[in-house]
Amino acid sequence: MMSTRSAAAVLVWLGTVVTILSRSHGDRNVYPSAGVLFVHVLEREYFKGEFPPYPKSGDASNDPITFNTNLMGYPDRPGWLRYIQRTPHSDGVLYGSPTAEHVGKATVIEITAYNRRTFETARHNLVINIMATEEFPLPYQAEFYIKNMNVEEMLASEVLGDFLGAVKNVWQPERLNAINITSALDRGGRVPLPINNLKEGVYVMVGADVPFSSCLREVESPHNQLRCSQEMEPVISCDKKFRAQFHIDWCKISLVDINKVVPIYITRPDPGTGILPEFGEYDPPSESLKARDFFADFLITLAVPSAVALVLFFILGYTMCCRREGVIQLVHHSSIQKSSKELRSMSKNREISWPLSTLPVFNPVSGEVVPPIHPDNYETTSMPLMQTQTNLQNQITIPQQRPSGDNYVMSTFRRLEVNGIPEERKVAEALNL
Questions:
Q1: pTM of the entire structure?
Q2: Helix runs in 322-398, H state only
Q3: How does pLDDT run across 219-257, given as a tens digit for each residue?
Q4: CA-CA distance, 112 to 71, in Å (whole number)?
Q5: Rounded-to-integer distance, Cα 9 and Cα 18, Å
Q6: What SS3 state is found at 108?
Q7: Quick count: other Cβ atoms within 10 Å of Cβ 432?
Q8: Which of 48, 55, 117, 266 could lock 63 by a disulfide, CB 3.0 to 4.6 Å apart?
Q9: Rounded to 5 degrees, what angle do the CA atoms 337, 341, 347 make?
Q10: What are the φ and ψ backbone dihedral angles of 296, each rounded to 5 degrees?
Q11: Better-scored residue on pLDDT, 294 or 349
């Protein structure tokens, strides 16, 4: 019985060791060429076998899996290698274009897969052995901007093959290679709105061994350059060969002949050994230093702004209180206020003196106060606000009967003429009969 249990334990331990070794030491070797686009797909199906299946054997496994890629011993990938995965339920893609500097150097990429359902991980190593090519670099290079594609869609072998076929049909070269693919977001483009199936856009660089065709050079004509400056689509004769699947922005096409490019050599300083020179031991200041008194500095810092603020305060006070202008206007404004109060009180009682508002308050030229027309002893308490004038020309008196009794009220009107048109104005009311 004990031997059976020990044998079972050994089998479980061996199975665990084999599983760990298979998860951490699975290496794959690839051999891309320098100057040619390298694409490696991280397939989710390949890593599903590393994780335990669903509890029910009949259920299909569709766990969300994400990937993390980095150069062995470093936290990130090499500068020429990029990675993209749109969703946890889609495959990841490593892509880039190695240069001649990386030829002969084995690049080991650590790939870690994360199962977002079980939180388990699986690790594989991808060994990239970059090979040299005789045709590198191709002398004529053209970069196209495709508006209706995302980078992961363009990296698919079928789509990239269709694009290279269309370019070869227009260019007619003997050798044609895809050199690099870059997302428009890496060039400073904006993330498109999630409407109308908008795409991010992608730049595709291809190289050939023959000069550019006349169709590709049509964008360099003055007419098309003018249309591009006016944000209009240029007229390209071979655009119909791409339009069925690829919408190319011809104003952003770039044609480069590397035979005519003048190389620029930048002299860089010697980086050195990276070790700082020897300066000896640190010598701190001695304890015999005299204490410094900052009280005078504090007073100067506080007194100068306070003095400036006080001077400005006195200048502002003198300007507002001692240099007041417009005294006549202030007196006139005060008289208007007094007259307004007087008119409000007169509306309640008509048996008061003449309103001061009908008299000039001051001389508008000299500003002196003008005495009233009537002397102080002039009796005006019984004078109505609007005097009834008798025996005047064009004066009419009309008797009116009160609705409550037999008494009559005599109303006096004065007939006036304005521009030849007679006008009647009520002057006063007579006493009750």
A1: 0.55
A2: 327-346
A3: 999 999 999 999 899 999 888 889 888 999 999 999 998
A4: 12
A5: 14
A6: strand
A7: 10
A8: 117
A9: 145
A10: -65, -40
A11: 294
